[in-house]
Structure formats: structure tokens, C-alpha cells
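Repro case for the chain-ordering regression, as requested:
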Amino acid sequence: MKVVLIKLGVSVIILWFSLWGLAKLYDFSLLQNCNLKTSYIQKKKIDADVLFEGPCQTLWMVQPAIIKKKTELKTYNLGLTHADFADNYLHLYLYLKHNKAPKFLFLHVSLESMDMNYNMFISHRFSPFIGDAVIDSVVKEFDSNYFKWVSIPFMKYAYYNNAINFDVIQGLKHYFTNRTNPYFADGFEPPFSLNKELNPEKFTQIYVLGYSFAWDGLREKYLRKTIQLAQKYKINVYLYESPILKEALTNVRNRSEIITKIKNIADEYRIKFVQFENMKIADSVKYFISSVSMTKKGSEIFSDSLGNYIKNEIIKQ
Amino acid sequence: MELHPSFFFVFLIVVVTLNYFFSARYRPLFILLASIIFIGYLNLPSLIVVLFFSLINFYLAKNITGKKFKFLAALSLNISAIIFFNFFNSSTQGPEFEFHTAGFNIPHFIVSIGLSFYSLQNIAYITDIYFKRALPQTSILNFFLYNSFFTKVISGPIMSPNEFMAQINSNKPSSEMISSGINRFVIGLLKKMVIADGLYPAVHAIFDSSNNYNGITTLIGVYLFTIQLYFDFSGYTDMALGTAKMLGYNLKENFNLPFRSTSITEFWRRWHISLINWFTNYIYYPIVYYLRAYKKIAVFIGIAATFLVSAIWHGLNFTFLLWAFCFIIYMSFELLTKAIRTNISRRFPPLVNKLFSIFIVFNGVCFSNIFFRSESAIRAFLLMKNILSNFIPANWLSDFVAPLANGGNLMEQFNFLITLLLMSFLLLFERTINKKATALKIDILYISICVMLIMIFGVFNNTERFIYMQF
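-- result from build under test --
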């Protein structure tokens, strides 16, 4: 029995150190992966003048190149698919840790972003940063099942390994090929093309008749925290709503109620809530790939409007 | 309640450690107590059910020898228990039978864990005593332990009373048993977490979505289900046997390289062995013996009855009957064509024969498993139609890889590829891995590699229940 215990002990020690070493390798590899925004904003000084944050509507619809052309301000799109306000908050936190504070932060807010049924907090995006008190507190709040394991070596990666392994391999590839630029240098990712399964006619039916969005307290909390964090760094914050296919909104019952609440928050922090939902392109389904996300052409028109807004309404004043 | 890994690991370490230090006299009592805690933690009503049926069977078996009425009553009680708890359990019930039980589903909280497994044990127990093949147990605590032993209560393996009871008062687990148990447990965990759960998205996409995929995608999904089922159930069995070994018990093997079978008959000697042994001993042999005058016909009837009972045991779903029907045809075909097949096989080299037979058997099993996995017969036939139509997709990435690889982006393709590679490795080197898994000494390298693979590629955040837990 003594031999068994010794062997078990040796196995545990070997595993403990191997997993600790593996976690370090993952930390390193993920940091080398230029395609991960959390890594890219650390490795490369972006120091943008205008920063955009939000979910896929931001990622696919805000083209920094167009805005820069209009405003001559360095612009970066920090949008990520499915990102909720807690995700935005931590991305902003990490950005500010490694870059100078931008002059302007445009934070995407919509009916969907206040409702827990849309977007989410994606814990594994922050796995390499577990150990940082701010990151830990948010991850623990949103994903306690995950957080309770992270003190075991490598478990911060093992738990979501199916979403991380590929990024680690890609990170190693970037390291060995000395790659320093991501696929999308300014953060904008072109939206996917419509395929046969996405029937534009269905976009208008996405919200059933009488649909109500549910205002969520946790979303509000992190919207406020993101604004507060930005204001702490003296960043001018703008909440903005991107165009939504007009027909899709006809079924929504409580739009004005939600918008009023968002406006109240904006007023509370003395910031502007800019709405682009009434742009002309919102009338035409041909500019949309879903009821809330636009085609590349649509995003060009929208980015142009954003550029004009920044140029005429912000810079000139 | 779901079985939390953290609870199970702490529970396992505590129980194995304390069991080692208990004297032989108190060890069975301690394991019984541990089993009660385990079942009670998972589902309290299940604990009451298992103790109730153990008590009833224990007392009914006392003076059952030669008493036909009492024997039939005891038999009926156990069969009724399976019918009541298994048949009205919505997870094993197909849409074809819903009208029978509409509005009469038992509440989910009294769906009993492992009842269909330990009821078979109880039937074996009372039958053996009735036919004087075994003596009734004198200790009610030992009998409770036989039914509720926590390592096998969920999904077996099914043990005969003689096999299990003889081990109850044995000496404390040797260091070899504990080492072997750890080796076995680790490979079970790897099979379940890396392969079975890793294959789940592909199988789920093919069987559970309403999409109709092209032929090759559906066919691969069907193959993957059989492999998933194998790794899921054999992974469970490895963990059950490993845990039991750590406590000083040798449970029955359930699998023996089933995908290397060269006939369906051989397949059923290698797949879910403990259940098939039970059906052979208590259904097939009695029928064949009773009808022995009819020779081959008796065998056909025996096969048919065995598989029909097996289908009904799995649940009240027409798909299970169709699954059983496939095997009745396969085995009858094998029986009728044995001489012809032997003659033909002589014309080919043994290796060609073997590989061809393995291919045919695997495809036959996969075909019948379409019924086993599909939620309805209509869906099963639709999948078969999909296999036969539009076999090669026009766009292999979006039409072939994407449905199997959970959407098909680069990351998902990578995960799917890794799972397939590990699956192939485990299947190809299964014999060598089994030797490592049953070794009597702890192999530090083997354990370290297994744990590392689990940590890197195992599914932690979306683990599926063991497939056989539903039966």
C-alpha cells in the first residue's frame, strides 16, 4: 500500500507541475494570438482617439477606416460577438490598462442589450486574466460554476478547452511566424454573407406580435459600471443605437419604455444617447443580414453617418 | 439531482480511504451506508424505492423454493416495478405510445435510479432460489448492499447474487486492487469526457435536429452514435468497475472489444455482456430448453423472445422494437446461412474474411442503432432515406463538415478533428490500453497522460448524462 501511495503522490505532483506549466504555455500562447482582441490590445499600442464597444452590431457595422477618413481620428472597433455590458466593461478595463484613454467611447446600447435573452458574458475570453481582482469579481458573478474550479492548475483553461485550444494553437503559430497583425487590424469584421437559409422576409417576424423586452438589473449595473470606468479616465461617453430594420420593430410593445430608461441613465451621467434607428436604410431589408445587423454595404452607410456625426456634432462643437 | 463531479470525487476518496481502514466486520456496513448516502444525494425517492424492493425480495425469497404461486407473485412484482418506473418514464417513451400513457406519466421525482437494473438482479435472485440454484441470503444488510452498491446501482453491471455475495465479507482491498481500480477509473473518465461527450454535438446534430442532411453526413453521424454509445457506456463501466475494485469488489465486465466482432452473435458476447448474460440465462435458455424438441425453431423463438424482452426492457418505444427486430433478422440469417458462409469464406484469405466480417457487423449494428437513438420510427426512416439520397454533398465544408462539427468554423473543425483522432487512437490500440487499464500496478506515465488528455480535450462545461442512465 505504501508503494501505491508513493506512486499516487508522485503522479499528483507530476500532474500538478505539468498542468501548471501547461497553463503558463496557454497564457503565453493566447497572448501571442493577434486575432484575440484581449491579446491584441495588450501587445500593440492602439491608443485610439475613438473607441467603439458593443456586441456583433458594433463588430460588423462600425468601420473605423471610414470614420477615420471622415474625422481624421484614430478609431478602433472593440466590438465582439455576443458581448454584453460586463464583457464590454472588462474589455474596456483591459484596454485602458495597456493603452492611453481614448477621447471618445461609443457604447452600443439597444433594446436587446438590456435583455438577458440576448448576448451574454463569455467567461473564457478572460481566462488568461484570472487572478486580476477586477476580472475575477465579474467572472465570479456571471459564471460561478466556472470560477470555483479556477484555483486548480490549468482548470481555468480546461473548463472551456473546446473554445480555447484552437486559439492556443493559433497563438503559437503567430509566435513562430512573428505575426503581429490580426486579420482585422482596426477591429471591424465584415458581416457574413446571406445564404439560402437566411430568408430576409423572416427578419420582420423575429419579434412576435406584442413582444416585450425585459429590462435586466445586471445589464443595467454593468452599463453603469462601463460608463463610470470611462468617466474615471475622463473619456467622453456616447451611447448609440444602430439602425434596426423598421418592419421588425412594429411588433415590439415596450420599445419606448426601454428607450426612456436608457435615456434616463444617459441623462444621469450627462452623456448623450444617439439613435440612428431612423436612418433611411432602416426601411430596406436589402441592407440587413438580420433584423439588427447590416450587410457590408449597410455598415458602410452607417459608418459614414457615424463619421459625419462625430465630425459635425462632436469635433466642430 | 445531477451528480456533481466535485461531490463524486470527494465522496470517492473519503469512501475508499475509510473502507481501507475498517475491519472486515464493519466494511460491508460502511459501504452500504455510503451507498445509501450516494443514492439519497442523487434522488431521495430512489433510495426509498431500492430499499423497499430489496426488503420485499429478501422476505419473498426466504421460503420460495417450490412455491409456485409465491414465485410468480415475486416475479410479477419485479416485472411490474420495471413496467411502472421504466415505461412511464418519459425519457424512454416514444411518441408512438404516448396515447397509452397520456396523462399518466409519473412525476419525474419518483423516476427511480437503476431500478430496471437491480430488478433484473432480483428476478435472478428469486429464480435461482426457486429452482434451488442458490440459497436465500441470511443477512438483509448484505442483500441491501447487493441491490444498492453505489458503483453499480445506476446502470449495472448486472450481477448474479452468487457472484456478488461471495465478495462481501472478503478481506480488505489489496494494493493491487486499488492500483488496478485507479487505472481503470481514469480510462473510463477519459472515454466519457473526451470521446463520448466530444462526439455528442455531431450525433445530436444528425439525430435531434429537424434538418435533413446529405447521405454521407447522416451516415457518419449514425456511425458516430454507435461509437459514442460504446465510449459512453464502456466509460461508465470502467468507472464502475474501477471504483468497485478500489473498494475490494470485482464486478462483471460489460464490454470486450465489441467492434472487432466478426458476427452478430459474437458482437452480443462482447457488448453489454452482463445484460445479455442475464437474458441468455433467464429468457433464452429456458425457452430453448422448453421447446428443445423443435430444434432450430426453438432457437429462433429463443432469439426473438430475448430481443423482444430486451427491447421492452429498454423502454416503451416502437423504435426499440424495430431495433430488436433488426437483431432477430441478423441472428436468424447467421444461423440459417452458417454453412454457406463458411464455404464462401474458404475462398478468401483469413484477413480479408475478418475485415469484411467486421465491416458488415459494424454496419449492421449501426443500422439497428438508428432505431435505438431516434426519437421516433418516422425520424429513423427519414434518416435512412437521407443516407440513400444525395450521398456526396456539393460543398463538402458547409454541407458535410459543418453539421458534424457543431457549425463548422475553424475552431469547431479543429475540436471535431481532435475528437476523431483520439477516438481512432483508442479504438485502434484498445487492446494495449485495456492492458494498461487493468494492470495491477500504478503506471505514473499512463495516469499522467490520461489526466492531461482529459484536462486538455475533455468536455467540462457541457457534460452529458450517461446514455444508459435513462433505462
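Ordering looks correct now. Confidence is low (pLDDT under 50) at residues 93-109 of chain B.
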